[in-house]
Amino acid sequence: MALIRKFAPFRKRNFNPFSCLLFGLLFTAACEEEEEIVPQTEGIFINEIFASGEDWIELYNALASSQDIGGYVISDESNAYSLPAGTTIPGSGFLVLLCNDLGSGLNTNFKLSGDGEVISLESAAGTLIDNIAYPNLDNGQSYARFPDGSDFWEITGTTSQEESNGDDSAPAINSLSRTPSVPTLNEEVIVTAELISTAGVASVSLFYQFNDGAFTEVVMSSQSGTAYTGTIPRMGTEGTVAYYVEAVGSNGLSTFKPATAPENLEYYLLNTDPLPQLVINEFMASNDTCCPDTDSGEEEFDDWIEIHNTGTTAVNIAGMYLSDNKEDPFADKISSDDADATTIPAGGYLVLWADGSTNEGVLHLNFSLSADGEDIGLFYIDGRTIDTYTFEAQEKDISWGRTIDGGTTWAAMENPTPGQTNN
């Protein structure tokens, strides 16, 4: 049975001058009236939180009758949103609020942080109804009460939007990794699944396929801590190896990683193409007034990276990767939506904007550069390294580039040349 948390009702008091005179010397509180209880809604809970994709918050009404929660305020650590008049939750039912910044109807004026934060719910009169601090959530995971409306919260790998959470959670897979991260032909690959907890886990299995063939199941072995490992055998021919992991609880509930597997899968390419003759040729990590980006319709002074094709044939970089961490080759995959934009002619240059605004076009990356120094990496479609460079702290409006295009010597450039020769 769900536990219903009760909240103290508001008390309205009538002014009584005799009481004030009699007790004024003993109590410093304002003179108040004799008690008249004003009913306060009980049994409304924040019941489930999803903060790893299209964010949402589920409310639960533990009462048997429908409840009007118009004017209730839902908030995170920075913003508050008042629910529209007439908003109701059916008896023993659920209501989902979409956290998408829209600020209308059942759409809040804020998004949720995947790193965790505090979510609060107040009544229209300002009484705190519920207050929940949720932890870091990986893609596909939610933080939920088990059972609905109880005091027990847990990360679960299976969400239950607008439905009962049931009595128990599904196993939660926190992350997948593989070794090596960029496999080659005839090389075994060890896949590691890190679970949040091994309590109540009945089995963990790895499923892999080669070139869209049938899936093969590998029962994964429990390691120290919360890790399970399984091995994908050597492949002697080029192609694509796709895989996912399923964790099954002793309660029969299962979780997949990726969360939407087998429709969406982790994968790696086995490829023997010769690497293209591309180099990171120049970049700017502190753009204040130099070199504007106008793709948004306005002048924006964003970080940028210039790639130079030192070869004798044009190269389309679609499907290749750029990263600000040379240990993570798969940070940002270049889109194939516009081949004209992503093709670098022989001896030519291409500028990509490191601004975190991928919605502005195929030449915009999902990261920015740190003016304090970090890596830049260019990687082939299979993750192999084409070129990397590690830089130190940068000055405003001064780029850093090769003194001769494609050469080995780098220097500060007071007159940046994005999209042009450095010579």
TrEMBL record:
Residues 38-136, 266-393 form the LTD domain. Residues 158-178 are annotated as: Disordered. InterPro entries: Lamin_tail_dom (IPR001322), Lamin_tail_dom_sf (IPR036415). Pfam families: LTD. This is Putative secreted protein. It comes from Cyclobacterium amurskyense.
